[in-house]
Amino acid sequence: MATQLNAHARNIECSEEEWQARQELAACYRIFDHLGWAESIYNHISVRVPGEDNAFLINPFGLLYSEVCASNLVKIDIDGNTLDGSPYPVNKAGFVQHSYFHRHVPWAHAIVHTHTTATMAVCSLEGGLQPVNFYACNFIGKLAYHDFEGITVRAEEGERLLANLGDKRILMLKNHGPVILGRSIPEIFIQHWSLQRACEIQMATLAMGKPVLVPDEVVAVHQRDLAQGQVPGKLPGQGDFEAWTRRIDKIDRSWRD
């Protein structure tokens, strides 16, 4: 992955490690846009800057995902200070939510929050995600839920977000949308992709009638064997992310700038 992303020369002052992170995050924004997961200029994907305490990259507020590139991502710290001289502001809701998790969850190097129709619909459904399809079985027992409190711009909500996340990696904000935390950009990508598919199929199934629920013991076997479906020799989501990066490169390589 590193060779593929580093093919474009740096055009801002930053470390090689930060440029790598910028390339990967910019690719992720373009992939989300290509897959129809953008929400005008809203929502956010962030990643920690390697080797720097309390610094992370996030999208410039006011730009579409299709306009995000490696050099215009905004570098901020967990207190909201801009570290790279960027002229762009940062969405307050994105900062409040992401900074709290980056501050308090050591393994959360990458975080994504979206408002896709399918995931928001399931977040708004009594009972949330149900074991009604292949992809849903990936997540049964692995999702946390948080009651809707309005737009996430108040720092004091952070304590409740963290408490409700518990030991999970996905927090379903009821009546709102998912927050997915992970160790890398490829990991949160594949988690979002799978969750999106699970929610799309649940919506379609419920629209047709009463779903067939997968028994708990089968869900357990499914989750036990999931790792066997990964690309050999690659980290979770890496094979998928590389494939989609090749796809967006064929469409528009400006994300690399």
| Largest β sheet strand count, sense and barrel closure | 7 strands, mixed
CATH superfamily: Class II aldolase/adducin N-terminal domain
Number of strands: 7
Specify the number of helices: 9
CATH topology: L-fuculose-1-phosphate Aldolase
Please identify, by name, the CATH architecture: 3-Layer(aba) Sandwich
Number of separate domains: 1
The helix fraction, in percent, is: 40-55%
**Tertiary shape:** globular
Spatial order of strands in the largest sheet: 3-2-1-4-7-6-5
| Integer-rounded radius of gyration | 18 Å
Strand proportion: 5-15%
Order of helices and strands: HHEEEHEHHEHEEHHH
Distance between the termini: 17 Å
CATH class category: Alpha Beta
List segments where confidence is low: pLDDT < 50 over at least 5 consecutive residues: none
Coarse structural class: alpha+beta
